[in-house]
Design goal:
- It contains seven helices and no strands.
- By secondary structure, the protein is mainly alpha-helical.
- Residues 1-6 have low confidence and may be disordered.
- Keywords: Membrane, Transmembrane, Transmembrane helix.
């Protein structure tokens, strides 16, 4: 213990978070939304909303990563980037944050499987809402060939997203 306290300046003691650490969660969510702009060509949209996945992963990992009201402007940016009807993500993202706040107050403990189930529920609800909005606007989108693959991919990719968020969180906090 004494040797590490008297060690070099590069010792890991008394190191705080990196500069701008409070903005990294929101920035990674926006980068996740920008992933949808990659030139992936398919007949149906089977890829999930990566911005939403990162939002849910950050919220499950750190309840204090940002205030709940940040979800509305990030949802607006997500709507503009993805081309969704304006207000779709602006409604669902803050609703997810509020629902997770309620879940945090009601649950005594959560393990990995419960958090995966919570994430799967929220991701599926938003994907179905996006599908319903597209159907109401007149897009020819059959449920089983458009929404179902996106929901399955979102649920199966979520553990990888949670791992990436955990690694970014450790880096930003300087651990």
């Amino acid at each position: 213990m004494v040797r590490s306290a008297l060690g070099s300046k590069s010792a890991r003691l008394n190191r705080g978070p990196r500069p701008g650490a409070e903005y990294w969660p929101a920035a990674t969510v926006m980068v996740g939304a920008l992933l949808s702009l990659l030139p992936i060509v398919s007949a149906t949209g089977w890829w999930p909303d990566f911005g939403l996945q990162l939002l849910v992963a950050w919220r499950l990992l750190r309840a204090d990563a940002w205030p709940a009201w940040w979800a509305a402007p990030m949802g607006l940016a997500n709507d503009l980037i993805l081309g969704n009807p304006i207000g779709l993500s602006m409604v669902f993202w803050p609703a997810i944050m509020i629902a997770m706040d309620i879940l945090d107050r009601r649950t005594m403990w959560r393990d990995y499987w419960v958090e995966w189930a919570i994430a799967a529920l929220f991701l599926a609800m938003v994907e179905l809402a996006q599908w319903q909005a597209a159907a109401m606007l007149g897009a020819p989108v059959p449920l089983k060939s458009t929404a179902a693959p996106a929901i399955i991919v979102a649920v199966l990719v979520f553990p990888v997203t949670a791992l990436i968020v955990t690694k970014i969180d450790r880096w930003r906090l300087g651990r």
